[in-house]
Amino acid sequence: MTRSAQSPAAAVDDATAERLAAALRCRTVSHEEPERIDYTEFDRLLAHLEQAYPLVHTHLAWESFGHSRLYRWQGSADTGTAGAILLAHMDVVPVDGAEGWTHPPFDGVVDSEFVWGRGAIDDKSRVLAILEAVEQALTEGVTPRETVYLAFGHDEEIFGSDGAARMAQRLRETGVRARLLIDEGGVITSGIADGIDVPVATIMVGEKGFATVRLSVSDVGGHSSMPGRQTAVGRLARAVARIQDHPFPVRLTPVTVDMVTRLRGFMAQPRRGGLSLLRVAGPVVARVIAMNPTSEAMVRTTTAPTVIKGGVKPNVLPQLAEAFVNFRILPGDSVADVLAHCRRVVRDDVVRIELDGVASEPSREPAAGPDFEVVAELARQLVPGVAVTVGIVPGATDSRYYDDLAVTRCNFAPIVLTAADLDRIHGTDERISRTDYARLIRFNRLLVDRLAAQV
Ligand SMILES: [Zn+2]
To answer: What angle separates helix 372-382 from helix 434-453, to the nearest 10 degrees?
Structure first.
């Protein structure tokens, strides 16, 4: 798409693709161990953004929070309300096994169809698309009516406590209240939703919580010839098995009911008829949804034992065995509920049960806000015939820090992905098509125009 193209399905031109590719060449990788993060790569990325988007960096006020950036685009009217807070993050997850990649993950290769590299979808395309749109608008003299904030985090993949948390706090202290909060999360999927032939745009309106529980058993150790009834490893294994065997119950939340209701009209009979029973047969519908791992996340707090370790030698009794279980918490449940659930099902006082690392609560009563339709309408404009529905992000995003700062929250990008494409996110061969990138820019540009026209 050239900067003024109108067709929603056009593709970005070489120069636009190259600006994104240059950003993908910056190895802005987040690691859990802070000493492994190379901040010079973040400096390179910030320098690239300043050079590639000169109008943004002269017309907007901006402030740094570590390597995060908060931009303020002054509105033409002083209404006391901000039009929007547009979030995105500049860091990416590490690559394990670069050999599997078609192009090296940090080479930023552009071909006739795609821009390839770690961060092409998650989430540098969104950072750059927002900047492309604002730069375009500034070129054309467009100003939003209400002030717009852009907030680009540098540590989303490691919980955002240094970037998003501080930027959100600054906005809170300044008394900012926005109509709309937009961040990553939902996309448009093609060929994934069972029984629906059209692409489905899932605009996420909140997110699940996150908690990792550490289970551990300590013992005096000794020789394995006189083990007693249970070793630390055996005891721990039993605790993990009990947690795995006692999942949280399936439950339909209001947002899941809304999700299914919005999709009903796009489904073929008899599935559609079945879903009209939603209110009377809710538990049955919830159980059907739970049968598929991707949709199961919508109806229960999920349980995933992820790490188990213990013991040093086959003939030595272990002194310590530990395991980690990751939970994604459904709205309505809490971090405290997860701990209580573990203690209840393990039923063994010798097993120590505690939270490990950062935990986050799920969104409180997520629902489509008053400006949801603005975003839904843009999705329909960009992908004619698309089915639009709501959802909640199964993982944690930076937007949880901003939840109280906006009336309507939408985690959404209008890129069209297949199941195979979804696997590329945090996986191998991450890439974005030139068409999707054009759509993403257009989405942000239309949103800016909308914010400019608002009366
Ligand atoms: Zn992300």
So the answer is: 140
Distance 91 CA to ligand 1 centre (A): 8
User: Scanning the structure block, which residue is given the tokens 């058993």?
Assistant: 217
Exactly one of 41, 91, 146, 219 is catalytic; which is it? 91
What CATH number has the domain spanning 14-184+412-453? 3.40.630.10
Q: 3-class SS at 121?
A: coil
120, 22 Cβ separation under 8 angstroms: no
Q: How far is the CA of 101 from the centre of ligand 1 (A)?
A: 20
- Whether the Cβ atoms of residue 448 and residue 149 lie closer than 8 Å to each other: no
- Which residues line ion ligand 1, judged by CB < 5 Å? 122-123, 184
Q: What is the pLDDT of residue 2?
A: 42
- For ligand 1, the distance from its centroid to the CA atom of residue 207, given in whole angstroms, is 13
Rounded to whole angstroms, how far apart are CA atoms 412 and 203?
5
Catalytic, 41? Answer no
Specify the pLDDT at position 6.
Answer: 45
Residue boundaries of the structural domains of the chain: 14-184+412-453
287 Cα–ligand 1 center, Å? 29
Tokens of 244: 């795995």
Indicate the burial class of 145 (C-beta count within 10 angstroms; 0-12, 13-18, 19 or more): middle
What pLDDT digit, counting tens, does each position of 274-326 carry? 555 565 566 767 777 777 777 788 899 999 999 999 999 999 999 999 999 99
First-to-last CA distance in the chain? 30
Active site residue 18: no
- For tokens 């529905």, the residue is 389
CA of residue 121 to ligand 1 center, whole Å: 8
What is the distance in A from the centroid of ligand 1 to the CA of 454?
Answer: 30
Render pLDDT for 94-112 as a digit per residue (tens, 0 to 9).
Answer: 998 889 999 999 999 999 9
Task: Note the pLDDT tens digit of each residue in 14-41.
Answer: 999 999 999 999 999 999 899 999 999 9
Question: Catalytic: which of 122, 123, 156, 207?
Answer: 156
